[in-house]
User: What shape does this take?
Amino acid sequence: MLVISRKSVEHLRAAIFIRDLKAKSDYEAIRKMLDSLGGYPQVKDLESLATAVFERQETDPPLFPGGIAFPHARTDSVSALVMVFATCKEAIPFGNTRVRLIFLIGVPKHAGAEYLEIISFLAKHVRGERTLDRLMEATDLSSFLAAFAEPNG
Amino acid sequence: MDNAEEELQKRRLSPLFRRLLKIKVWLVDRFRLSERQITLIWAALVGFLGACASESFRKASSLLHYAATGSDSGIILSFEHLPWWQRLAVPAVGGLLAGLTLWLGSRLFSSVRQKTTTDYMEAIVVGSGNISVRASIVKSLSALFSISTGTSIGREGPLVQLSSLVASLVARMRNFPIPQRRHLVACGAAAGIASAYNAPIAASFFVAEIILGTVVVESLGPIILASVVAAFTSQLLHGAEPLYKSPGFNLHTQWEMIPLSCVGIVLGFVAPAYLRLLRSAERLFSKIDIAVPLKLALGGAIVGLLAIFNPAVCGNGQGLLRSLFHQGWFWDEILAILLLKLIATATAFGSGVVGGVFTPTLFIGAAIGMLYGQAILYIAPGLRSDPAMYGLVGMGAFIAATTGAPLMGILMAFELTLDYALAPFLMVNCVVAYYCSSIFERRFMYGESLERKGAAFFNQQLAEVNIQDLVRVNPITLPKNATFARIAETFVQHRFQHIYITDKENRLLGAVSLHDVKTFLDRPELETVVIAADIMNEDFPRVSPRQGMGEALHKFSEANSERLPVVDDLSSQRLIGSISKTDIILHLAGDQKR
Assistant: This one.
């Protein structure tokens, strides 16, 4: 099991969870997730964050086998790492890939190591079929995070 | 599996590659090879190749000597068995051939200049580290004719020239930037001296003290390594015996320390006169308006004339030195050969023979030291002095006083004799001789060849050397969408600590640091999710060729990196190469001499 730092655990606990996100496109899905960050104290400029995330999507959309997307950006429009998790009962098209689980991450430029740690942690755990199923079944952030604590399968 | 997943699988690293990557990161972390360490490897190679080049010259010289005299003995023995006319003719014809080689060479190749026999010094101190192949071959061939036929000139000149040439070629083949090229040529020069005298420590300090004018660890380390490798290579071929083995000395009374500590004073005052003699001979020959081949033939003929009376005058003086220390010469014999050797060396040097005066100078110092020892024995017989001991100390003191390099003098005389009992006397006398010589003389033996280039040349070089000269082109770059797998692969394939990220127009966007990502390199889950744009440092310091050396150093202190990217200018940010901290340090170390 991958061990992560206390700071990363705090970031995970502070994340926003959206159950059963509905959207017709990747743009719409990401936009909805970004909007959920409105008023979030760590977000200094939501529009700049959105621009950075969409730019990153255009460069090379970060997708993972099993229908998982990691839209993210390193930008100074956030003062600390922010995350929004979303499950989608109806898969959303991200290009050719049908996505069921989305992890949106905003990282300040200076927090490169934190970013790699978090993304590595998430990506490693979602590889397991059982973890993926448990994440999809989560009803709130606690049950979502609890899925990571259980053994992979 | 859908198309996207197949694509992702393709972009992943194999488990074996990941394991290799982990090992490499571990190795890099613990045994990080910086530019300096890589230079050491090249220095060792240059040391070996330099010794091979020196050995080839020695062999060629022996063959030609046999062809000229019909004897494979040493120069002096060969000349002793020659009839008088041949003693005259052999050096004269040798001089003629040496001169013809130079004359033809200068006709065919503009890079061949007759007078300068120390190209390697210019290449190290003021040049680009490039030594002309044609000029080196022409000069070495010319030196081969002179040395093999008995001219009183040292063969360390061509040995060092060839060894430096090999180093310069290696540096050019590897496309090293100017400072590193110059540094490698310095290693080559040291290797040449080390193999010529079996004296690796002195060779290192010869280059550091005389050529570089600085003893900076940064530059000295590779020079030492090249010298040691060259000396070991020569020892494999010729044995590890010192060149002039000391007969072994004991002070019969502690009072002898007083006269023994004063050899340096005598030699320190004689050295300026010797240097002026060499310069006067040079001026005298320059006034003789005849073609170069005839001038060298005349120089050879004068040595030949002296050889009719005393064949010991021929050659560089190496055999003579051995005989001097071991065969108990009388003072009048020493005085006679000293005077003849002075004339022969000044003639050879003045006529423009390609070669060195290092060994002849060692002999002259030893002979004066022995005469001084004889005088002490005569004045104070109770001391029971051994003149050979004074000769050995005099040898070191005279070389220190004429080259202006006391440290090298101490080490050279010590390594040539390997007699530890001499060491304290060498230390005192070399330093004293240098200080005494400095009262009358500021232009020492090798500094002169550089001074000839003139202050304007130095200033011009100094003004011309800028960041542009130190740039290494074609740095390792990746696009901003390069996957983490590709970044990891690139770090495995290259030893750099940073990969520069550029756009399609080759504009620098930032740099990915191995330090930042090394703990994540073995995480397969990141290979397709993370790209260069996610982890690059966009504010990574960079320099432009328009900036000064001071600004570049300041940027290095900001970046904590061995190398920095160089962009054509700070507004367009187009990447043209990279510059390394080691290159700047070597460049500055080289500049101290100026």
In short: Residues 6-147 of chain A form a domain with the Mannitol-specific EII; Chain A fold (CATH 3.40.930.10).
